[in-house]
Amino acid sequence: MNEIGVAGEALVDWSRAQFALTAMYHWLFVPLTLGITFILAFMETIYVKTGNEEWKKITKFWMTLFGINFAIGVATGIILEFEFGTNWSNYSWFVGDIFGAPLAIEGILAFFMESTFIAIMFFGWNKVGKKTHLVATWLTAIGANLSALWILVANGWMQKPVGMTFNPETARNEMNSFWDVLFSPMAIDKWLHATSSGFVLAAIFVIGVSAWYLLKKREVALAKKSMLVAAIFGLLSSVYVVWTGDNSARTIASEQPMKFAALEGLYNGSEGAGLIAVGMFSTSENDPSNENLKDMTIKLEIPNILSYMAFLDWDAFVPGINDLIDGNEKYGVMSATEKIERGKVAISKLNDFKTAKKEGKTAIAETLKTELISDNFQKNYFKYFGYGYFKDVHELVPNVPLTFYSFHTMVGLGFAFVLGFILILWFTLKDKIGEKKWLLRLSLIAVPLAYIASQAGWIVAEVGRQPWVVQDMMPTMAAVTRISAGSVQVTFWLFAALFTVLMIAEVKIMLRQIKIGPNH
After folding, report:
1. How confident is the model at residue 55 (pLDDT cuts 50, 70, 90)?
2. What is the DSSP string of 453-474?
3. Pairing of strands 270-271, 317-318
4. What Rg do the C-alpha atoms of the chain give, in angstroms?
């Protein structure tokens, strides 16, 4: 640990790796839960409205697969929340007064609501009336997505801290507006985009399993009915994903310009910036030191689209990585060096206040405190507090190739899914889906691709914002718990083994249940 409280590189890397491992495994289970609960609710609604027992059989079959997924997803989620205290205690101290609130609500309200009505949904078929059971199914779906809301509100706050004041006495950030935190555009965009992507994944999952039945000429009625519901739900959801993604991109361009530049592979900003549809980095751009901040070697660019996507202006200036590092006076872009200097002033003033208070110099301490909480200091210095931890401006650049390729993978697959839903819906309505073997096989392939797209989205969200754990305020290297890197490494491999076993177990149980079918 150096003089400004930064942890060693090995500890930071292993702590990040462990959290990423847990989060990515957890996100293997969450999207299906978010989407399939609504598909279940729609299917059961059809059953209640029509009285057709076939729809009850269909609903109960998909409910079984949901239950398998939900049970294993809970285990990884609990571990993920514990890691904030075990591996990121400095972060928890610095922003716990804010970050803890949505997590507490998630646990007390959404999780309890979801868990309560899941019991009725699974075990209440012959114990409560049809309408009561249907309400329980709908409330389970709503509860699952409310659970995601509070988690994503917390994550959105990390990406854009709002609704808080800094208390120099405790060196903690304290919430002053719960509603600003809840309704932050960053938080709402993340919630809408993440949940709608879960809807798409669930629809693809249902279509994929149904396609397998059609290829095997089994459960044909169940497969066709399930495909119809999933294709309609998936098509509407995929259009919704595009809309929420577009809104999210504008928010990122405004609040996290470095992430935006990274996900678009934009090194040199310009007016009327073009969107890179396809691009490839040279070896130098893959240098993790980020010292070679050049442009791409190969790219297919669509003129002016990026400027419009970011600011709804075809000729708007979009800053690139070099502009954000070196500054661009013409467009009012502050250099990274200037931000680092301002951050050091903020850290120095805080240390001076703590020293004066410790030494009993009350007058000096009160003067420094007044300065620290003044609007001018907050706006011009404390805003860049986190930059004061850095010495090299290039440390402020995330892994550009990984962010860029992940983003384009997500977007490319997303548009492919839209086309797939249209084809599935068309041939299902024409009652020709069973004849289209090529489309059924593509539907099977689409299932793992949906998971890849989902994981790629989170890589963009989390890798793209590095090196920050709280944007501009707290770098990752200052947030970790001061424990040995070796202990984190040991638990990393233990979790890797445990989560892999859980994933294999889920896949095997799912596949066995699918092979058994709905009649057992």
Report:
1. very high
2. HHHHHHHHHHHTTTTEEETTTE
3. antiparallel
4. 25
